[in-house]
Design a protein that fits this description.
Elements: H1 26-41, E1 46-48, E2 58-61, E3 70-81, E4 84-88, E5 96-102, E6 105-111, E7 117-123, H2 124-137, H3 142-145, E8 148-151
Antiparallel strand pairs: 1-2, 2-3, 3-6, 4-5, 5-8, 6-7
The protein binds nickel (II) ion (NI).
Nickel (II) ion binds near residues 90, 92, 132 and 136.
Length: about 160
Amino acid sequence: MALRIIVLEPDEVLHQVAKEVKKITPNVQKLLTDMAETMYKAEGVGLAAPQIGILKRVIVVDVGDEHGLIELINPEIMSKEGEQFGPEGCLSIPGYRGDVRRAQTVTVKGLDRNGNEVTYTGSDLLARAFQHEIDHLNGVLYTDIAERVYEITPEGEEKE
Ligand code: NI
């Protein structure tokens, strides 16, 4: 396992479209492992491969619910339902948060690290994390779609 360096805005790689993974190699499995380690160390709830400079369609998510760590290769949103509106942050944009409108529930399909097709349906924070991370694979940051972006203090409060 190895920690990777998180790429920060305005790095160009964050605005590019990531490529589909054609074959799950040990390299891709190591990428998943490293991404999870990097996400936990940074105390995030999700990380997409472009955030460590790798333009592959790979994400990890762990919102602290019963699913634990979710690893997804080539994730796709199959359906969306409802709406939620609330604050969102990104490990690539430290010190900021934004109010973003998202679907309340999404169903996501992808491959696990062994190439098996897996499907997850999540609501609330899990749905938000899926949408945020899959946006990363398309070069979209939450700041591109937020209704308002604001600076926060180290404690996570909005700055006056
Ligand atoms: Ni992000």
